[in-house]
Every structure is written in structure tokens, then in C-alpha cells.
Amino acid sequence: MPLRLNDWKLLKNEIESRGATLVAVSKTHPSEDIISLFQEGQRHFGENKVQELLEKKESIDLDIQWHMIGHVQTNKVKYMIPWIHLIHSGDRLKVLKEIHKRSTREGVKTDVLLQIKIAKEDSKYGFDYHDLVSLLEDGKIQDLTSIRIKGVMGMATFTDNMDVVRAEFRKLKSYFDTIKDQFYKDSALFTEISMGMSGDYQVALEEGSTMVRVGSLIFGPRNVTT
Ligand SMILES: *Cc1c(COP(=O)(O)O)cnc(C)c1O
User: Is 196 in the pocket of ligand 1 (CB under 6 A)?
Assistant: First the structure.
């Protein structure tokens, strides 16, 4: 594992001292790296592909809180229910309905974040904010009673320009505030803003992130592009 232990402790402390959660994004890295970090006290790990998540979960017999952070095909949802800790990528109604259906069948509630588009590129997954508000106004998401909506998730534009990134994170925070105020005012559950990665987690924390998803800074560069 490339990050020295002391550096990881500093990172974790920097994040937790602001009341946020560090999700260690282990995609493309071997299970041994996850186990080493778990032994140092890390509990939240994130993966962006269902297949890889399943392989790792099956190879590691530890009490890890697994986060799904990547786009999920509807037909893969069933493999994550009932044990997934949090699905960050609730990015369209179809996948939310499937999570609801499978959770109902298993008799569980599944925690999900609403992924909202904040970046310039069209390639990013996520709800268009205005479409999402319409769905909420129509009660379409609240109807899915086996899902607990815990907050929002977003990914900033991939750029070194931190002014652009900061403006996008600020936008996500304002979306969170508006949605909470209009639809989840009395919910003690709607509390999370998942934003910030290796290159921008500090900006994200300054703009109100409660959950940062950090991969390469902890585990080193990935040889595979994902
Ligand atoms: C890979 C990934 C991350 C972590 O990216 P790093 O730049 O390696 O920290 C965070 N969020 C999502 C959705 C990812 O796919």
C-alpha cells in the first residue's frame, strides 16, 4: 500500500475532525490492501463495480461497511441486497425502483443517496436537479418505502481549476438544503452530502461535505481506468 500509515492517519483525522466520514475507495486494488487498512481501523470501503465488490466481499471475512459508489445496472441490484451499507449512486428512478423492490422482497430497508449532476460534462451519471424535484413533488421517490434516502451525492468536473470545482460543490450543498427543506424536513435520516475525491476533498469539506470518497491518495494510482 503506497500511502504510509502516518499519512493515512493524518488524512483520516483531517476528515473526521470536520465531522465527515472517509470512504476508502479500493477499486482495482487487491483485497490485501483492504485488509491492511481495516486492521488499522478503517471500516468504510467503496467500490464502483458490482462484480468487483462481490468478489472482494466474498474474499474478505471482516465486518466492513461496503459502499457502492458507481453506476449500477438494474439487473445487478439484487446482488447487493440486503448487505450493502450505502448506495451513493441512486442516479435514476428505474434503479431506485429496483432497489425498493429487492429490499421489500428481502424485508430490509436500503440506504441510498440521490446522485445529482453538477459537472459540466454530459457523461456524468445522475439526476438532473429539476427532474429530481419534479419526481419528489409527485411523491415518486417517497413511494419507494423500502428505500431510505440519506442525502445526495455528486461529482465535480474533472479539472484542476478549483474555482469550478468549488462552485459545483456549493451548488450540490444548495440542492441538498432545498431538497431537505422541501421534502425531508422532518427526516432525521436526510443528512449526507457525499462529495470530494483525492484531488478535491479539501474543497469539498470546506463546502459542507459529510462523506468523502478517496481512492488513489490512499491506495496509489490505478493501472486500469475506470
Ligand atoms: C474512483 C472514484 C472515486 C475516488 O477517486 P480518486 O480520485 O482515486 O480518489 C470517488 N468517487 C467515485 C464515484 C469514483 O468512481
Answer: no
- Answer whether the bond into residue 2 is a cis peptide, omega within 30°: no
User: Do residues 57 and 66 lie in contact, with contact meaning Cβ atoms separated by under 8 Å?
Assistant: yes
pLDDT of residue 122: 67
Residues making up the chain, counted from first to last: 226
Bridge partner residues of 151 (DSSP): 113, 192
Q: How confident is the model at residue 99 (pLDDT cuts 50, 70, 90)?
A: very high
31 falls in which pLDDT band (50, 70, 90)?
very high
Phi, psi of 4 (to 5 degrees): -75, 150
Q: Can you give the pLDDT at residue 6? A: 77
- 7-16: long-range contacts (C-beta < 8 A, 24 or more apart)? 8/37, 8/40, 8/42, 8/218, 9/40, 11/214, 11/217, 11/218, 12/41, 12/42, 14/202, 14/205, 15/201, 15/205, 15/212
Any residues with CB less than 8 A from the CB of 161 and at least 6 apart, and which?
A: none
pLDDT tens-digit profile of 127-182? Answer: 999 999 999 999 999 999 999 999 999 999 999 999 999 999 999 999 999 999 99
Q: Is the CB of 198 under 6 A from ligand 1?
A: yes
Task: Evaluate: CB of 197 within 6 angstroms of ligand 1.
Answer: yes
